[in-house]
Amino acid sequence: MAGTKAMTAQQQTPTAVPHKKGFWQRNRGLLFVLPWLFGFIVFKGYPFLSSLVYSFTDYNLFEGITKAGLFNYAEVFTDKKIQRAFGVTFRYAFMTVPLKLIFALFIAYILNFKIKGVKIFRTIYYIPSILGGSVAIAVLWKAIFKEDGIVNMILGFFGIQGPNWLANGSAAVFIIVLLRVWQFGSSMVIFLAALKGVPQDLYEAASLDGAGKWRQFFSITVPLITPVIFYNLVTQLVQAFQEFNGPYIITQGGPRGATTLVSLLIYNNAFKKYNMGLASAEAWVLFIVLMIFTAILQWSQKHWVYYSDED
Amino acid sequence: MSANTAAVTRKPMSREKQHKVSNAIKYLVLILVGFIMIYPLLWMIGASFKSNAEIFSSIGFIPKNPTLQGYKDALKGYGGDIDIWKAMLNSLKIVIPKVILTVFSCTIAAFGFARFHFKGHDVLFALLMSTLFLPNVVLNVPQYIMYNQWNWIDSPIYLPLIAPTLFAQDTYFVFMLIQFMRNIPKELDEAAKIDGCTAWGTLWRVIAPVLKPAMVSCALFQFMWSYNDFMGPLLYVSTPARYPVSIFVKMSMDADTGFAWNRILALSLISIVPSLVLFFMAQDQFIDGVSAGAVKG
Q1: Nearest by CB to B109, which of A33, A134, A137?
Q2: What is the ipTM of this complex?
Q3: What is the pLDDT of residues A237-276, one digit of tens each?
Q4: Domain A79-304, what fold?
Q5: Domain range B75-295, CATH class
Q6: Which of A285, A305, B116, B137 is deepest in the core (most CB within 10 A)?
Q7: pLDDT at B197 over 80
Q8: Which residues of A touch B47 (CB under 8 A)?
C-alpha cells in the first residue's frame, strides 16, 4: 500500500501509458540514473568507441579520413620517439607512485600517534595537494629549480654543486616527479583515516608479546590497511600515467624529449599536428598498458590485500 | 589483565624515558618534513615582495627591501583583452555552474544507485565504477572531435567544460555520495514513504539534509579542481578575452620568464588566493571527503 501511495505524479509523468506503468514502478531507481546514463553514452561511451575507430585511420582534423589500417599501431610499436615517451612515462610512474605512497604512509603513521597539534600538521601537509595542480605552482617550481634558484642555493650551502635542473634530462624528470610527490597529502589523509580504524588493542597485545614499533608497523598496521594501500596504488597509477601539466608547463617535454610523457606526445600529435588517428592509437596503447597493470594489481590482491569482512 | 599491569609496571622509568625520546623524534620529523613542504610557498610569498634583482640572490624568504612593484605590474596586465581580474571572473563563470550542476546531478544519480534495485542495476553500477578508472587521456581526442562537430569549441559559455557536469559525469563524486548514502539508515526512507513522501521528495527533504556534509565536500572539490583545471581550457578556450586564470597565468609565465619573476610570482599568488581561502574556511570537509571515498569502499 505504502509503495503505491509513494508513486505520485512526478514519477508517473514520463510514462503515462498504463501498461508501462508497471515497469517504471518496479524500476523507479532507473529514473534517477537515467541522466547519468545519457551523459555516459554521449560524453564517454561514444567517444571511447569512436577513438578506437579513429586509431585505425589517418583521421586529420582538416582533411578527414583518407585510409584505414594498422599503420598507426605499427608506428607506435616502431617509432623511436613514441617508444621513448612510453619509457619515460614508466620511469615517471614507477618513481612517483612508490615515493608518494611511502611518504604518505610514513607521515600518516607518525600523525596517528597521539600527536599534539595534529590538525596543524595535517593542514600543512595537505596544502600542497590543494594547490599542486594549479599553474601557479608550476610557475613556482620553475622558479625554485632555476639554475640559480633556491634549491641550488641550498645545495650550495651544503657544498653540493646542483645541476641545471631544466637542461639535464634525468634532473628534469626528477623535478616533475617531485612536484607530484610533494602532493602526498591527499594519500596521507586517506591512510590516516584507515589507520584510525586499526583497533588499539591489537597494538597493546603485540607490545605485550614484545614486538617493537617497527615490527608492529609491518605485522599489524600494514596488513590491516592493505585495502587502502591497494586503492591508493591504483588511483595514483592511473593518475601518474596521464600526467600532463608538469611536463607541459614546467619542462615543455624537454630537454630533448626527456620529459615527453605519452600524454604530452598525444597532445602534440592531436592538437599541434592534428593527426587524430595516431594520437588515438597512442592513447589506446597507453590505455591497454594501464589496464594490464591494473589487472595485475587486481590479480595480486588475493596474495597481499586483507579484507576483514566480505561486505 | 594481570599480565598487562605487570608488564606496564615492570620498568616504568625506562619506558617513560623511551617514550619521551621517541616522541621527540616524531615531532622533529614532522616539523622538519613540514618545513620542507611549506618552504617553497613561503619563499613564493616572500619573493613576490622582492625586487627582481633580489629574488635569486639569497636563500631567505623575507625580503630585505620589500616592494609592491611585482603586484603593481601584475595588476597592470599585459595589454590585450584580458587581465588577472577578468581571467578570475572567467574562471568563476566556468566553476560556479560546474559546482552547482555537479552537486545536483551527482546526488540524483547516487540516490538512484544507492537506494533502488532496478533492472540492470548491477550492470550500470559496474559501468559507473569502470569510468572511475577510465583514463581521460583516451577521451580527449574523440571528445575534441565531437565538440568540434557540434561547434562547441571556444563556446562563449564554455559548453565543453560545463555540459558534462549536467549529467553527473564526474564519477568520483557519484561514488563518494554513494559511499556516504550507504551510511544513512534506510529506516529514514521507509518513514518518509509511510508519511506519503515521493521518492523525489524523500531525496531532497529527507536524504539531502543528512547528506549535506558530503554534498559540501563535492562542491569544494569540484571548485578546486575546476578552478585549477588547465587542460580543459587549453583545449576548448581559444579567445584570449575568455581565458580562465589557469591559462592566463601560463601565458603570462611564457611572456615573463627570464626577466620579471616578481611579477609572475605575484600574479601566481593572486591566482591561488581563492583556493587558499576556500581551503582554510572548510578544511575539515575536504579531509572528510577524501577519506570517505577510499576508506569505506
Answers
A1: A33
A2: 0.87
A3: 999 999 999 999 999 987 989 999 999 999 999 999 999 9
A4: MetI-like fold (1.10.3720)
A5: mainly alpha
A6: B137
A7: yes
A8: 143
